[in-house]
Design brief:
Blueprint (H helix, E strand, L loop, with lengths): L6 H6 L4 E8 L11 E8 L2 H14 L3 E4 L5 E3 L4 E7 L7 E4 L2 E5 L4 H11 L1 E2 L11 H7 L2 E2 L2 E2 H4 E7 L5 E5 L12 H4 L2 E8 L1 E2 L2 H18 L19 H7 L6 E2 L2 E3 L7 E3 L5 H19 L8 E3 L4
Parallel strand pairs: 2-5, 3-5, 4-18
Antiparallel strand pairs: 1-2, 6-7, 7-13, 8-14, 9-10, 11-12, 11-13, 15-16, 16-17
Helix pairs in contact: 3-7
The structure holds flavin-adenine dinucleotide (FAD).
The site of flavin-adenine dinucleotide (FAD) has 34 residues, from strand 3, helix 4, strand 9 and strand 13.
């Protein structure tokens, strides 16, 4: 059994693993918010990911995974234990016939570009979603009528024993912004997407149009975590929030975007506490107005300051 104090040294000795201690999570989230994680572990190969998971499991330390941090709010007190960050280092895409296999930390944008370059269609809906491939699978990210579930063939995961296992599409229990990985705490290591041959120019055009439309409708370029709430059945969270007059509402530097009511933006120095208070206020407004309790889409982790 390894003592927690020895962990940074032990992890740093593993090949292809970078370890940071007391690392502010604000630097690793698109919200630009979040206290420090005790340990931030960044493996650059699947073997290194498995080895790091095994070492951490041996100490019983709390472990969580992040990709590009574009769908999470980290509380101001940070995260006790280890955060394994997959994006940036665990990247790479290869082709097998009409299937692209991407490592979990690869950006979804790079995968979309790769599809266009290779003349493969099927992920155009995802253009402009700023997450990693792993995060997109866990969230079953989607837009424009498409979702990751449509293209996914299989996912390789690492268990907390450090074993690599394959899960096929039918085993993943995809639903609206849902997958079984939200419950089972497995690390998503790589993903295979099944695509169809297409004219490269058509794919590039579809990607461009999707991004253009996104820039028109969303506060792209401002710090946020995308849509705060899931859509309720047969309606849109953004519509309900707009009609409940939440646009421009503010707590500290957290503000409901005047451009899209389902986005909260960080105007500069917002804390997680500000965002959580604002979420509560706008959730209440919609409930008072329409009797609907909106459910959070963003994932909230860590502890209060
Ligand atoms: C401007 C903006 C626009 C957006 N538009 C959309 C949109 O149109 N549609 C949409 O669906 N989403 C959208 N999002 C939300 C977000 O980009 C997606 O949910 C994305 O798929 C999250 O990926 P990520 O790598 O950033 O995940 P993170 O935010 O890092 O993590 C999200 C969840 O996945 C888990 N996770 C991440 N990687 C792994 C892994 N490898 N193994 C195990 N667990 C993992 C984390 O623990 C966390 O619970 C938007 C966000 C922003 C900021």
């Amino acid at each position: 059994m390894t003592a927690i104090t020895e962990l940074p040294v032990q992890l740093a000795q593993l090949p292809d693993v970078t370890v940071l201690t007391n690392e502010p999570m604000a630097a690793h989230t698109s919200f630009g918010i979040g206290g420090a994680a005790d340990l931030l572990v960044m493996p650059s190969s699947i073997g290194a990911l498995a080895a790091a998971i095994k070492v951490l499991a041996d100490t019983g330390v709390n472990v969580c995974y992040i990709g590009n941090g574009t769908n999470i709010l980290v509380r101001d007190g940070g995260i006790r234990g280890a955060v394994i960050k997959l994006s940036e280092a665990l990247t790479g895409i290869r082709r097998q016939g009409n299937v692209l296999i991407a490592r979990a930390g690869e950006s979804l944008g790079a995968l979309c570009q790769h599809c266009a370059q290779q003349g493969l269609s099927g992920l155009e809906f995802a253009a402009g979603i700023p997450g990693s491939v792993g995060g997109a699978i866990l969230m079953n990210a989607g837009a424009n009528g498409g979702q990751m579930a449509d293209a996914t063939q299989w996912v390789d995961v690492v268990t907390d024993g450090g074993e690599i296992q394959r899960r096929y599409r039918d085993e993943i229990e995809f639903g609206y912004r849902r997958s079984c990985f939200q419950d089972n705490k497995l690390a998503i290591a790589q993903v295979a997407v099944q695509l169809t041959p297409a004219d490269s120019r058509d794919v590039y055009r579809a990607l461009y149009e999707a991004v253009e439309e996104r820039c028109r409708r969303q506060p792209v370029g401002q710090a946020s975590a995308g849509c705060i709430f899931k859509h309720p059945a047969d309606d849109y969270a953004g519509r309900l929030l707009e009609e409940a007059q939440t646009k421009g509402m503010r707590v500290g530097d957290a503000m409901v975007s005047p451009k899209h009511a389902n986005f909260i933006v960080n105007l500069g120095h917002a804390t997680a506490r500000d965002v959580l208070q604002l979420i509560e206020q706008i959730q209440q407004k919609v409930h008072d107005e329409f009797g609907i309790l909106l459910e959070s889409e963003i994932r909230i982790i860590g502890q209060d300051a």
